Amino acid sequence: MSIDPAIYYAAVPAVILVGLTKGGMGEALALMGVPLLAIAVPPVQAAAILLPILVVMDCVSLWIWRRHNDRTLLKMLLPGALLGLAVGWATSAYVPRDALRLIIGVITVLFAARYFYNSWRMRHGHVIHAKPHRLVPAAFLGTLSGYGSFVAHAGGAPFQVYGLPLKLPPRDYTGAAVRFFAILNFLKLGPYFALGQFGTENLTISATLIPLAIAATALGGFVVKRMKPDVFYPFMYAMAFIAGLNLVYDGARSFF
Questions:
Q1: Can you tell me the distance from the alpha carbon of 89 to that of 208, in angstroms, rounded to the nearest whole number?
Q2: Is the CA virtual torsion 42, 47, 52, 58 positive or negative?
Q3: Mean pLDDT value of segment 134-160
Q4: 3-state secondary structure of 39
């Protein structure tokens, strides 16, 4: 078996970006992973190569953030996310993925823009309180996160839309996010195997990239653990805004 070395020119930066995300540095970096790798291989193959790497990254992240979590956030979002995964698996062949990316992207851009508008208001004397947990938004955004994760690799943005306004301690928020996506990625292994995407070539490429993936994830966790809340939250909202713009661009270009 011969693997084209050019694949690694795209795969190495893709894995670094996704690894930093898995360490806790925001969804925007992860969204660049599959498109970068898709320069060298078909998009479905790119996603399949990255999925085993994501599972390894999740294991590293779970160890890094093992002492930090918010169980209530997980309890609110996971039921909807599991439903979203199931619906995504059942309907993935019929869903216009670009339309879904566009919808999620617009929601995320508006959500992040609202944060920066409220930040401007706070500098002028207004008080913005943390939002409480709400069952209906949690069910809707959890389902959208699971569904988007399966059919368009865009599950992080809905999670942020629900989770960030809670204003949790940064480490607890990141620990919950790590657990949430570790569960989703593990559950996606079966469907991807059923699609025949875990052949020898893809798994070999994945295996050779795992040491880099572990190092990038550890670096992301090292940085985020040292962020203060007044740095963490503007950074995460900025990452959400960039992720939203990326999704809008990917979704809209197919219509034009």
A1: 29
A2: positive
A3: 88
A4: coil
